[in-house]
Request: fold
Amino acid sequence: MSFIVTIILTVQMLSALAMIGLILVQHGKGADMGAAFGSSGSGSLFGASGSANFLSRTTAVLATVFFVCTLALAYFGNLRPASSGSVLEGAAVVAPAAAPAATESVPAAPATGAAQIPAK
Reply:
């Protein structure tokens, strides 16, 4: 189980880092206006509008992978064995000390606090 969680956590971290990189590379909405007026955006690797589609789709796929990994980690983190209940149930049960047997020579303590005179 630990191996699966490690793999899922690694995929989640790699997708998060790739998502951060892709989001930083993408142009904002204001950059499209500059490309429309003859900026050097049309000479890019993916073309003027091709880069936005490719990068945004890749970001959406990575976001989906990140979300699925997060759900899987939450599921595996919340799994418990069926026999395990509370943390306190697994603790060692200590039996309370046995009360000394009441004898005739030791009178019982009164409930009201008044002194009790033993009968002869």
Q: What stands out?
A: DSSP finds three helices and no strands in the chain. The first helix runs from residue 2 to 25. The CA atoms of residues 99 and 108 lie 13 Å apart. The helical segments are 2-25, 29-36, 50-78.
